[in-house]
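hey so i finally got around to running the thing on that chain from the lab meeting. sorry it took forever, my laptop kept dying and i had to restart like 3 times. anyway pasting the input first so we r on the same page abt which one it is
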Amino acid sequence: EQWTTLRANQTPRMNNIGISDTVTRKAITQATRIAKETQPISGTLAERYLREHRSIKGALPDSFRFHPNHWNSEAQLKMPALVVVAKNSQNKLRAIQIISLDATTANKAALKSPKITRGTLKDEAMGVLVNRGTDNSIFAIAEGPETALSIKEAYPDLTIYCTLGVANFKRVPIHSDTKQV
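ok and heres what got predicted. didnt touch it at all, straight out
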């Protein structure tokens, strides 16, 4: 398949491991470490959050994971979390979004910032593929993972990406046959 990005961008200078600077490399390493501590979402508090509080009924992508004890610096304690994994066009993990959950209610934790992103969203052609649709002519992009899943519920034939942030909308890969975003 032929995929492009919403912006034409020069390729950044990369070091021998494909990451352009030390800060970015450390951020990706941290995101990768956290992602490795996760488990599949099925039967977890994260699945309960999506089903009970976000009314998601369909299948959940493999990029939606559960972390039973993620350290939340705002709360200063370990909390369960939904972890959403973002990969670049080479299928390499570059970022995660951590959504802290209330261990009793399975809802988002009552924090000022229950969502935090780790890693980098600066790679060209990246995001979280929530649904690989059958109709490439129409494409949906959502900022948050829960919104992307809601769109999938309503429009299961669309290809749907989640950006994990407003600044990343321009980096989502768009199929060359796409007529409407």
